[in-house]
Amino acid sequence: MFEAVELGRKVDRETWDRVTPGLRVDLLNAQFELRSADFPVLIVLSGDDRLGVDDTVNLLHEWLDVRYIETFGLGAPTDEERERPEFWRYWRTLPRRGRTAVYVGGWTLRAIRDRMGRRIKKVEFERALERIRRFERALADDGALVLKFWLHLPKDQHARRVRQSRRDPEKAWRVDDVDRRLLRDYDEAMRVVEHALRRTSTVEAPWIVVESTDRRHRALEIGRRVLESIQRRLHGTGEYRRADVAPDLTSHAESAGAERLVLDTVDLAAVVGREEYEGRFERAQAAVHRLSAEAVDRGVSSIVVLEGWDAAGKGGAIRRISAALDARHYRVIPVSSPTEEELAHHYLWRFWMPLPRAGHIVLFDRSWYGRVLVERVEGYAREGQWRRAYEEINEFEEQLVEHGIVLLKLWLHISREEQAARFEAREKTPYKKYKMTDEDYRNRDRWRAYEQAVHDMVARTSTEIAPWKLIAANDKRHARVTAMESLRDALEQRLR
Amino acid sequence: MFEAVELGRKVDRETWDRVTPGLRVDLLNAQFELRSADFPVLIVLSGDDRLGVDDTVNLLHEWLDVRYIETFGLGAPTDEERERPEFWRYWRTLPRRGRTAVYVGGWTLRAIRDRMGRRIKKVEFERALERIRRFERALADDGALVLKFWLHLPKDQHARRVRQSRRDPEKAWRVDDVDRRLLRDYDEAMRVVEHALRRTSTVEAPWIVVESTDRRHRALEIGRRVLESIQRRLHGTGEYRRADVAPDLTSHAESAGAERLVLDTVDLAAVVGREEYEGRFERAQAAVHRLSAEAVDRGVSSIVVLEGWDAAGKGGAIRRISAALDARHYRVIPVSSPTEEELAHHYLWRFWMPLPRAGHIVLFDRSWYGRVLVERVEGYAREGQWRRAYEEINEFEEQLVEHGIVLLKLWLHISREEQAARFEAREKTPYKKYKMTDEDYRNRDRWRAYEQAVHDMVARTSTEIAPWKLIAANDKRHARVTAMESLRDALEQRLR
């Protein structure tokens, strides 16, 4: 999830100066129009970047007409509040239709803090997350526009901030014990956060995770999201009105010079020499062979999802992995356009069907992610359908993982140029030519749209229980050995 | 919940013979039309009446064209099934669009059985129920029509059946240990069932609880519900298509001579003589006085909901209860048409606001139930709004109860004749005349519609954590003393 917002997105002062005046005018206009609208707006500002949250609140107050927004700090509950059910404090502050309320921190952050501070048990945490879903659903069903921002700072930035505060007494007061504790338990904390965001990211109120390192980027991203969401809600039609207005987790502010997407973090220069390859590959293959046999004995099954650009080498990786396996115990499921029978069912149906028996491995050559990739980009799925899919996929994968299945999700990444070269080579190779269709060329035209879809996919489905692994595949040896080693590591971790 | 289906509804043979031929033709026609429809139908048949479920399955097979339905028994999972995540067995059996699948027992019953057999912990039970909600929501979002029937048999009928099986060897094979155990732990079992049905009764897939005592009534009720739901789905338009087609929990089959509703179970002849009244009332009042003072000390707050027909005596009951309380610690909230400010919020907002502080009591003269009563009947709320309300109300009340608040819900019931007499008396009493409005008379015209709304309200919101108490109020003394004693009992139970 957070890998999609650790991109180093930045906005320079020039862009900022050029863009913000217009944005501020638009925001004020939207706010004016909102006054006579029949829905309220709730903006939840929270995140691991506490200071970023505070700054953003102040900025919104500067940018918006404060007569029509109200901001709630929601620190420790008052006596009054403790004497009522927990959500009383949220209900009493709900804005009326046409008005906006900003919640600093908010209900989900509170549940996360309670859990990290061990004030509530796992069961109570789950219960709290369920309550949050129901609360937000009730509001959304009633028409409310619920915008939830999570401001994320990478670990090194947290560390830098704490270091700076030690050196600079003037900044020190802004960094407190909470920040220091967070830094100390960062990895564990982020697991809890990912879990909470996954569970409370619904089609009616999805989390929008924002990269918080650069102040200007953060401000523009949030300002734009608020503006767009209100505008779409005021004027949008769309099949899926609710989802329409809750924009995607990470669509970025283009004109702000923040065009990096998650695939840009993959180092495509990664190369593995022939000699190194042979050693590493053989060892990994032998390990996979041994581990998969042990998995058969112990009844541990595995699912490997291979996704990636056309010609990225999915087939090659699958052939090599399957060569390490006993033919009786694995199965490859090539996924292409759904059959008539498959179309007559829920889209997940065809992926439930081939789930492996105990001890077996299923390799998916493309997968259920088609819903949020090709079907989204090519318009085969309606907006409501692919937006719902993130939640449904997370639920599906949770069931797999909770059943004890090893779930490995690999994306093979190549550059556009590399793809062009491989297409050309295919055209020239008689036995590979059949692989090329018109569609392959069409897909190339939408490269950018696919990149955005991959980005959103990683942001929303790379979870603490089923993370995505993005593999550089311009170099085939690098791709193959990394895929094999990833499977080895996944099996080892489960069987250990 | 179950009080709404313990009415002794029956269908005589004559009615049965008259009605079933037409119903069967209609069902076959609907089934034929369904074949080219773009949605599948899932019928879940489960209940505490195991034999009734079996009989109903056989009947559906007799009535429907079996080429287009498939029935799944779903007993103990097979090896194949145990090796996959639990829901695999449900996914693999999902019908394609245009087809119907009948599930005998089904996923919720399985969770209930696991819980009753102590095979899963409370946490796992909650998790299972959440998974069920998500599963059904995913199917409904994809267009599926999900009809879930719970066949309920009152305790005395269960007992009768077990007794009969002892006497009649030919019937004995149909009653097994499961039935005997159920009878032994009946009350506990029904609490678990109510909990599960409450948690999995959603607007997209609500439970339809069916009175199972009379074979013919049960069959007609289910047959009609299936027919109506498919027809409404095929041809309905409606704002809220999903909910539209999933009919209400207990709307009954009128022409089948089964017109009894839950209010008909209230014995309106109940009378309390003056002398008895004075003794009982004084004792109850003194107890409430003492207990409410103890509640103040211990910080236990209470909410009393008074609902009932116009002129049923809500005001009188409230005056008498409040006379037993310390004026500093209680508050009466009279609920009438929402203000402009209230309309500008979620309808529950105005009921969250006045929740009592620790130790205090709030008496609601009418309440949040207006949504599913007057707003439903008079059309002030759209169908989607009042249908969603059942779930939202149950969630709201769960939060109250979990916070430790004493929640008492009273319905004061009077006959239509009694109401007419009281209206007349009001017209003649100068200081009561102001109470009468045109609306009161208009409401009388919709008596039957209100009765149905009350019935559905009890069926869906009388839960194991917040049951409704229906009080006979033709006799004012009976109503007042019962209300007072109910509060005493509720306080006693909580403070004990």
Characterization of this structure:
The structure is a homodimer of 496-residue chains. Helix content of chain A is 54%, strand content 12%. The first copy, chain A, is an alpha/beta fold. In chain A, helix 5 runs antiparallel to helix 6, helix 13 runs parallel beside helix 23 and helix 14 packs across helix 23. Chain A starts with 12 loop residues before the first helix and ends with a helix. Chain A has a 5-stranded parallel beta sheet with strand order 2-3-1-4-5, with helices on both faces. A 5-stranded parallel beta sheet of chain A has the order 7-8-6-9-10, with helices on both faces. About 3% of the residues of chain A have low confidence. Chain A folds into 2 domains: 259 residues, 3-Layer(aba) Sandwich (Rossmann fold); 231 residues, P-loop containing nucleotide triphosphate hydrolases (Rossmann fold, 3-Layer(aba) Sandwich).
